[in-house]
Amino acid sequence: MSNTETAPDELLCGEPPGRAVSVLEPREVPLGGPRAMTVRRTLPQRRRSLIGAWCFADHYGPADVTETGGMHVAPHPHTGLQTASWLFSGEIEHRDSLGTHAMVRPGELNLMTGGHGICHSEVSTPETTVLHGVQLWIALPDEHRHAPRAFRHYAPPERDLGDASARVFLGSLAEETSPVETFTPLLGAELTLNPGARLSLAVDPSFEHGVLVDFGAVSLHGTDLAAAELGYAGPGRDRLELANGERAARVLLLGGPPFGEEIVMWWNFLGRSHDEIAAYREAWQAESDQFGRVEGFDGTPRRLPAPALPNSRLVPRRNPN
Fold first, then answer.
1. Three-class HEC string of 131-168
2. Interacting residues of 196 by C-beta distance below 8 A, sequence separation 6+
3. Roughly how many angstroms between the first and final C-alpha of the chain, as a whole number?
4. Which of 11, 90, 202, 317 could form an SS bridge with 128, CB 3.0 to 4.6 Å?
5. CA distance 246 to 284
6. Is residue 3 over pLDDT 90?
7. pLDDT in tens, 25-55
């Protein structure tokens, strides 16, 4: 999925200082391309760029594709990151310059490694009537950020938690562990909560966590979260406390240890300096072999052109201390 801009500041509320749950509100952003689809972006924000290595979160739908036109994102590049695609409904056709031709389906993870350079296209299928899901990016640490192109698919089992259920697509939670390897420790899981659910989940205390609400209203450590909001809880907790009211709810749980590296992220590139990003842009515009070619995409435009760089130099993104 193609990035266009960043999102507003977070709102701190809930627990005492040092243990506060932050509420990150979404910003509506048009997806790149002539048939722009609006998404709700909660990462990055001005004061919260990452949760663990998770550096980007776009939440979209449920959208009637007869009204919105669905998703139609022409080939576009990535560097220094992985894309994690997760659907709740609909189907998206994925093609990339590794030669992968795969479908993104509900409850199944598609993880693409961009590393040194990759490009891909994303198009909702003709059979899709309602499109609903989340697009996530994962920052690669310096020692692995030029990793070769890769693609991984995984369909996690649904685990019964009593008042809830979980699908763990990355990392470990509730005695379920994903077999998908990551370059830094990560947690990614979909949780569906029955009405009146109360969950106390054992987690790694070295992790920071984010809870993105898909539908329903949920509280995280007593802080209320509405649909499309993302609650942030810092490291130091060995349990996460979640609860909801009389209606069912669904959330994505994201986590990982604080990333600890400064990153420069612009458009679809993740690097470490302005000059590096400028070089990536120049390579993409020149149709360099660094990104390869997507075979089989027959849409318009043939590929997304990179926007112009800003007049000022790009600076690293930093999380609050």
1. EEEEEEEEECCHHHCCCCCEEEEECCCCEECCCEEEEE
2. 163, 244, 245, 246
3. 30
4. 90
5. 50
6. no
7. 999 988 754 456 789 999 998 879 999 999 9
In angstroms, rounded to a whole number, what is the distance separating the alpha carbons of residues 187 and 51?
A: 10
Question: What's 295's DSSP letter?
Answer: S
Dump pLDDT digits (tens) for 257-308. 999 999 999 999 999 999 999 999 999 999 999 999 999 999 889 999 999 9
In this prediction, residue 7 carries a pLDDT of 32
Q: Give which of 135, 234, 118, 115 is closest to 183, Cα–Cα.
A: 115
Those residues whose C-beta lies under 8 Å from the C-beta of residue 260, and which sit 6 or more positions away, are none
CA distance 248 to 89: 17
pLDDT of amino acid 18: 46
CB atoms within 10 A of CB 222: 11
Please state whether 124 falls in left (phi above 0), alpha (psi between -120 and 50) or beta.
beta
Mean predicted lDDT score pLDDT of the chain: 92
Over residues 51-62, the mean pLDDT reads: 97
CA distance 277 to 182: 24
Rama region for 95: left / alpha / beta (φ>0; ψ in -120 to 50; rest): beta
Are the C-beta atoms of residues 143 and 22 closer than 8 Å to each other?
no
According to DSSP, residue 285 is labeled H
**Which pLDDT score is estimated for 215?**
97
Average pLDDT over residues 243-247: 95
**Three-point CA angle 131, 176, 104, nearest 5°:** 25
* CA distances in angstroms from 147 to 82, 255, 262, listed in the order given: 10, 22, 18
Q: Note the pLDDT of residue 2.
A: 64
Rg from Cα positions in the chain: 19
| In the predicted structure, residue 186 carries a pLDDT above the cut 60 | yes
Q: What CA–CA distance (Å, rounded) separates 242 from 253?
A: 11
Q: Which long-range contacts (CB under 8 A, 24 or more apart) does 216-219 make?
A: 216/244, 216/245, 216/247, 216/248, 216/249, 216/250, 216/251, 217/244, 217/245, 217/247, 217/249, 218/193, 218/242, 218/243, 218/244, 218/249, 218/251, 219/243, 219/244
